[in-house]
Amino acid sequence: MPQSYTPEFKKKIVRLHEEEGRTYKSITAEYGVSKASISKWCSEFSKECRTKALENPDIPNEMELMKENLRLRKELEEAKKENPLLKKSSGILCKGNRLEAYRFIEQYHELFGLRWLLRGLEICPNAYYNYRKHRKADYYANKAEVHAQIQEIYHIHNGVDGYRSMKVYLERRGYSYSTATVHKYMNTELGLHSIVRPKKPEYEHGKPHKIFDNKLNQDFTADEINRKWCTDFTYLFLSNHEVRYNCTILDLHDRSVVASITDRRITSNLAIRTFQKALESQPPIKGGLILHSDQGSQFTSKAFVEFCESVNVTQSMSKAGYPYDNAPMERYFNTLKNECTNLYEFETEKALYQKVEEFAYVDYNHVRPHSFNDYRTPYEARMAA
């Protein structure tokens, strides 16, 4: 059985559509009236109003009044929108930049309405929709440019950079991207991966055999420069498999290499020469300096201990067989081998010595970002101290 509606209800529906500007769809959703019924009622009401107006010209046409009220309401809404629009878009209107206008519409279309903005800025809808269709052209062009930069940096540095270091190098070239984006571009899209450091082997923790107490206790931070240094030896190979030994000293304040010497033999003399070179490279050190090392015979030798005492330096030593007590040195030597010596074949010891010094004093101290320094170089962190 068809549902019947009262004249008052029908007039209410007509008023919602003709005077308030409600769409058929919204009225149907709210009142459950079909679109055909709404259209029919509006037509009937319009005929009724015209008939009354013809019969009695003094009576205003109610349908025309509804339409006039709707027109005035729309004009008022337009006026309310125009003031904030002029404030927000004045720069765009002055510049006459069509691309800026498109971006403005994308940002404010929900506030003002898309078609209203297109009319207000005198932009053809087709032009705007074409822009939206091709709006990612700039994105893909910029992405291709960054890809090229990543590949260039990666190959210049012999493939040693991970995505965190790559982010820093890109920022130095004026490209600011998040770590996640650089990781996606570098590892996922370009398939470029850094040389992965091998996992540290398991060690048997030896019983404490302290020639000197461990004064750091794995506190590898220093509030000032030249307060805590650490040192150690590592082995390096020539192309004919002959071994050379490097002794390096790091300042724990910023992880900068203070001194580095490579020689044929691993002796206390090499340790003393490296320490002496480090002291001479710095201004006179006032206050206490701690030099931390492992319990190698070179550092526990009479000659080395007496040299430390002569320059008023306090020695500190790791637990025997426990390399984690000197982790910064382990980290540095890992970096030295993975990012430098393992990438080359050294025919002569001179070439090896020169490359190791160049890496320590130039690449490591001045170029390579270090996570300990919030990805500043050791030199930058040292200058900021």
Write the layout of secondary structure elements.
Blueprint: H1 7-18, H2 24-31, H3 35-55, H4 62-95, H5 98-112, H6 114-120, H7 125-133, H8 137-156, H9 163-172, H10 179-189, E1 228-237, E2 243-251, E3 256-263, H11 268-281, E4 289-293, H12 297-300, H13 302-310, E5 313-317, H14 327-339, H15 349-367, H16 378-384
Parallel strand pairs: 1-4, 4-5
Antiparallel strand pairs: 1-2, 2-3
Rough outline: rod-shaped
Low-pLDDT regions: 198-209
**N/C terminus separation:** 89 Å
Q: Largest sheet, described in full?
A: 5 strands, mixed
Structural class: alpha/beta
- By CATH, the topology of the largest domain is Nucleotidyltransferase, domain 5
> What share of the residues lie within helices?
55-70%
Strand content: 5-15%
Annotation field: number of helices: 16
The H-and-E topology, N to C, reads as HHHHHHHHHHEEEHEHHEHHH
**CATH architecture type of the largest domain:** 2-Layer Sandwich
What is the count of structural domains? 4
Biggest sheet strand line-up: 3-2-1-4-5
Overall average residue pLDDT: 84
User: How many β-strand stretches?
Assistant: 5
Nearest-angstrom radius of gyration? Answer: 39 Å
Under CATH, the homologous superfamily of the largest domain reads: Ribonuclease H-like superfamily/Ribonuclease H
Q: Which CATH class of the largest domain is shown?
A: Alpha Beta
